[in-house]
Design goal:
The structure is a homotetramer of 157-residue chains. Chain A has 3 helices and 7 strands, in the order E-H-H-E-E-H-E-E-E-E. Chain A is an alpha+beta fold. The radius of gyration of chain A is 15 Å and the shape is globular. The N and C termini of chain A lie far apart (33 Å).
């Protein structure tokens, strides 16, 4: 199911401390789910992470759109890595919770999730993620997520 | 990534109107995501749906646990079909939103999502889903979801 | 507990259809809770509503900050009226659900909730509301809400 | 707006460590909001807290029902104190976030919120709260909340 490297969009990154982008890329590469579905990081910055996902049978629901659960998974991941960019190299994060509202059916060829940190507290970071579906050159907002991320070491369980 | 039929658990169903279980099974089989990851329906009843998912590389996050986004996807799907059981044969449903709290890392060999309808309104149904991870014969609650499902025809967009 | 009219901030409104601002004001005035705590509408526009609330003993929690539940109530109300501005005069709305993340303690003299519609679907509108606390001329983001609003007539129960 | 002590329901409590019930009551009494609206604790136990609120003009919305924001505030408070019962005497808690689904209009004379801890982690506790409205001897589920509570000292900001 994985897209080839050649098909993957290039990644933009700026303003991050040394080693942070490489650390995020390495962590992302260990996420079996993101690899299996062919997701890629397209942008990283301080408190920001964008991911892109091509449509395939393996991420669809019964009407041939992106499955809402995959929309949530991509957005959850974008928010988590947006948070990780703000923490010292070597940090780990855990999702405490997320909430996603669906704005329209995710019918299109690519899905784009843009995560941004709203507030970086001492142990919890709050993010918002906007998800867009791309179809015929148009970009439509299709979901909105709000999420709590915990710095590991202050683990939830 | 799909589990063979022989490995899938048998499905229990009771109390449903004629044709409803077959309709839910057919809809589930058209969900490319659920097929790709090897999820199966293990229980259906009026306002109830349980799903099971074996662990595999393709549903993992960076520490080798079930990816939180997949936990959300499985729970979202269980809640949606729990809602569908209460609607007339031929109905469609859409997820308006869901919110998931993670209770502990989903570290184990199987994931079980049990969805139940809290309230079936005229156009919106509210569900709760409990997710458990199974490891060495033990079952641990690992996530809790609360969700709004809309009867299609009264579509969100 | 109500603030006198003289203390209330003036309301800005523009771009709304005839009668809409008056309708929103009349509905708001019938909300016993908003009157009891002294909340006021400070801005109305197409898909937008801002509310302001002065601190008082009656809206406090045990540390003397704004109670989180009141922060949620003010944000819920701002989101609901933001949605109502987009519907024909005579429409009614119901909150289906909301989710609020607290970004910092709401310690200050005034609370400001700014609601905006993210997506206006046929029967459901999705909003986001940002809440700020004002203290010594500074404005700090203290909460973020995401909400589903249903047009009445398509009622949830 | 406060109900007199004579009108308040008696509180049931059992299974709590020495001093815990008194501590919760003292904290609740310092919540200006809960006092102003006349809310009372009706039950406390390990991981459980129930609150009751009589209807009054000051907690109403534009149709004369309980305001959804007050339903959320009461549920938020019940969940927070349910969490506090599980922590050592002297602990403080903060709400990180909550999400509430409305199941039917809260039309009735009394509101009852029953909070229970789903999972008590090291720094975060997850709760669920069920809210009922009482009318003419009948009790109807009217809202469902899911919430994250943080032990203070591990503060969100």
């Amino acid at each position: 199911m994985a897209a080839s490297k050649a098909e993957r969009p290039a990644m933009a990154e700026e303003g991050l401390p040394a080693g942070k982008a490489a650390e995020v890329r390495a962590s992302f590469a260990r996420q079996g789910l993101m690899c299996a579905i062919g997701a890629a990081i397209t942008e990283l910055g301080p408190g920001r992470c964008a991911l892109e996902l091509p449509f395939s049978e393996g991420v669809s629901q019964q009407h041939g759109f992106f499955h809402g659960g995959i929309v949530g998974a991509l957005a959850d991941t974008a928010g988590g890595y947006a948070a990780l960019t703000l923490l010292p190299v070597g940090s780990e994060v855990l999702t405490l919770e997320y909430k996603i509202n669906f704005l329209r059916p995710a019918a299109g060829r690519r899905l784009l999730a843009e995560g941004a940190v709203l507030r970086a507290g001492r142990s919890v970071l709050v993010t918002r993620v906007d998800v867009f579906v791309l179809e015929e050159g148009q970009r439509h907002a299709c979901a909105a997520l709000q999420q709590s991320i915990m710095r590991a070491g202050a683990a939830p369980g």
